[in-house]
Specification:
CATH class: Alpha Beta
CATH superfamily: HUPs
Radius of gyration: 17 Å
CATH topology: Rossmann fold
Helix content: 25-40%
Number of helices: 7
Order of helices and strands: EHEHEHHEHEEHH
Strand order of the largest sheet: 3-2-1-4-5-6
Number of strands: 6
Length: 196
């Protein structure tokens, strides 16, 4: 059976409602069959950032996705126990009977040439670019030859970020409605991000 699969990679440190709203919007906008959330073990662009353990981030993702049959998670990058390169992840999911769509934020578009083997990514997947600002994203020159494989979402802007949530938690400020209640309880129980 042929499937249209969205591949949604990220640190998910922690996963929040912004991630889920964007995924839900993209799922219906591009008529996908599944969205696969792929938490990174060590993201190449954030390798110096202090990141909560992969196991905690995966556990929170499992909690967040539990009641949505259209969303699944993959432990592929975590199981590699090394820096997570998108090209390797796409090769893992590639199947000639499926169509892969890599979901990225528009802030990465102008930096896409810094991604490992970025031109080969288009051998395996199209890009779905989600909006993070009101500015209309443009395809940079180095990606012009791939323009037919780059699709722009009309997603709503969700001004919530994992870094904002981590900062608020460390300052003992409310993050109600930014996270699912069960994810927040997981964080508090394990005293993550400076809670407790």
């Amino acid at each position: 059976m042929s499937l249209n699969l969205g591949i949604f990679g990220g640190t998910f440190n922690p996963v929040h409602i912004g991630h889920l709203i964007i995924a839900e919007y993209v799922f219906s906008e591009f008529i996908l069959d599944k969205i696969v959330f792929v938490p990174a073990y060590i993201p190449p662009h954030k390798s110096t950032e202090k990141i909560t353990s992969a196991q905690h981030r995966l556990n929170m993702l499992k909690i967040a996705l539990k009641n949505n049959k259209n969303f699944v998670y993959s432990e592929f990058e975590i199981n590699q126990k090394t820096k997570s390169y998108t090209i390797n992840t796409l090769k893992n999911f590639y199947n000639k009977n499926h169509k892969l769509f890599l979901i990225i934020g528009d802030e990465w578009l102008n930096e896409f040439n810094t991604w490992y083997q970025y031109t080969k990514i288009f051998d395996y997947a199209d890009l779905i670019v989600v909006r993070r600002t009101l500015l209309k994203p443009k395809i940079p020159g180095f990606l012009k030859k791939f323009k037919n494989q780059i699709h722009f979402s009309h997603n709503p802007l969700i001004e919530i970020s994992s870094s904002m949530i981590r900062e608020r938690l460390s300052q003992n400020k409310s993050v109600k409605y930014m996270l699912q209640d069960k994810v927040l309880k997981y964080i508090q129980k394990r005293k993550l991000y400076g809670t407790g």
